[in-house]
Specification:
It comes from Thermomonospora echinospora. GO terms for molecular function: arylformamidase activity. By secondary structure, the chain is α/β, with parallel strands linked by helices. The chain has 2 domains: about 200 residues, 3-Layer(bba) Sandwich (Glucose Oxidase, domain 1); about 45 residues, no CATH class. The chain has 5 helices and 13 strands. The model has no long low-confidence stretch (mean pLDDT about 95).
Length: about 260
C-alpha cells in the first residue's frame, strides 16, 4: 500500500484573505503555563523548575477559519435551508463517514481558463480517462491552481465548475467533489463580472448553491494531484474534523494506492 498526501498546509506565513495567526508556546513556556493552569483549575501548586530542564510540553494556539487549508464543506455551508429531506442541511459533524473513504478519479482541467467549466468539459475529461464515476466515488479536479499557492493569485486565478457540471456528477451518484483550487466555484471576480454583464443569477456561485437542493460535500484546496500515478484505481481518504455545528472541517486528504 502507498499513501500520497493530497493536502495543503495551514501556514501562517502564507497569504490568506483571512490571515492565520499561530502562536507557539515553547516547552519552557509550556511548563509555566501548565503550572498556572494547575493552580487555577485544580488548586495544585507545582514549581516548573522541578521538571527536567524546566520544560514541559509545547503548545500551539491557532486562529483560522474552517476554510483554511484542505477542508470539507458541509451542506450547512451552502445555506440555512435545504429543499431535500427535512429541510435542515447537515453540519460537518453529522455527515456519514462512509462518504469520505471511497474510490477516486482525478480529472485533468489544467488547460481550463479562469472561470467556470461546464458539463461538456467534464464529460470530455471523463472520456479521456475512460472512466464513469460510480455512486459515492470521489471526483478530484486537477485545475493547476496549486501553482499559485501561497500568493494572492491562488484566490483569483483558477477554474471552477458551473451548475451543469456539478449536477452531471451528482446525477452519477457522486457525493464528494474535490478541487485543488480555492473554491469549487469560479473566482469571485469572474462570477461578479459575468453577473453584471448578463444579469443572470444562475452564474452566482452555482456549485455551492446546488447544495441547497442536493446533499453533497465539496473538498477544497487539495494539493499534489499531479503526483497521482494514474487517473483512477486508487481510494481517497478525507475524513473531516468533527467540529460540532461546523459548516466545514479540515482534513488530511490522502490517496491510497494498493500497489
Amino acid at each position: 500500500m502507498r499513501l500520497i498526501d493530497l493536502s495543503s498546509p495551514v501556514d501562517s506565513s502564507s497569504y490568506e484573505p483571512d490571515p492565520v495567526t499561530h502562536e507557539v508556546l515553547t516547552p519552557r513556556e509550556g511548563a509555566v503555563h501548565m503550572s498556572s493552569e494547575m493552580r487555577e483549575h485544580f488548586g495544585i501548586e507545582f514549581d516548573p523548575a522541578e521538571l527536567p530542564d524546566a520544560e514541559f510540553l509545547s503548545l500551539d494556539r491557532i486562529a483560522l477559519t474552517t476554510h483554511t487549508g484542505t477542508h470539507v464543506d458541509a451542506p450547512s455551508h451552502y445555506g440555512s435551508r435545504a429543499s431535500y429531506g427535512d429541510g435542515v442541511p447537515k453540519h460537518i459533524d453529522q455527515m456519514p463517514l462512509e462518504w469520505f473513504f471511497n474510490p477516486g478519479v482525478v480529472l485533468d482541467l489544467t488547460d481550463a481558463a479562469t472561470g467556470a467549466v461546464g458539463a461538456d468539459r467534464v464529460k470530455e475529461a471523463l472520456d479521456r480517462v475512460g472512466y464513469t464515476p460510480r455512486p459515492f466515488d470521489i471526483v478530484l479536479l486537477h485545475t493547476g491552481a496549486q501553482r499559485h499557492a501561497g500568493t494572492s493569485r491562488y484566490f483569483t486565478d483558477f477554474a471552477g465548475l458551473d451548475g451543469s457540471a456539478v449536477h452531471l456528477l451528482l446525477d452519477m451518484g457522486v457525493r464528494v467533489i474535490g478541487t485543488d483550487a480555492f473554491s469549487l466555484d469560479a473566482p469571485f471576480g469572474d462570477i461578479i463580472a459575468r453577473y453584471r454583464a448578463t444579469g443572470d443569477r444562475s452564474v452566482l456561485w452555482p456549485a455551492h448553491f446546488a447544495g441547497r437542493d442536493r446533499e453533497y460535500c465539496q473538498l477544497e484546496r487539495l494539493a499534489n494531484l499531479e503526483s497521482l500515478p494514474r487517473p483512477h484505481g486508487f481510494r481517497v481518504a478525507c475524513f473531516p474534523v468533527k467540529i460540532a455545528g461546523g459548516g466545514a472541517g479540515w482534513t488530511r486528504a490522502v490517496a491510497v494506492l494498493d500497489d
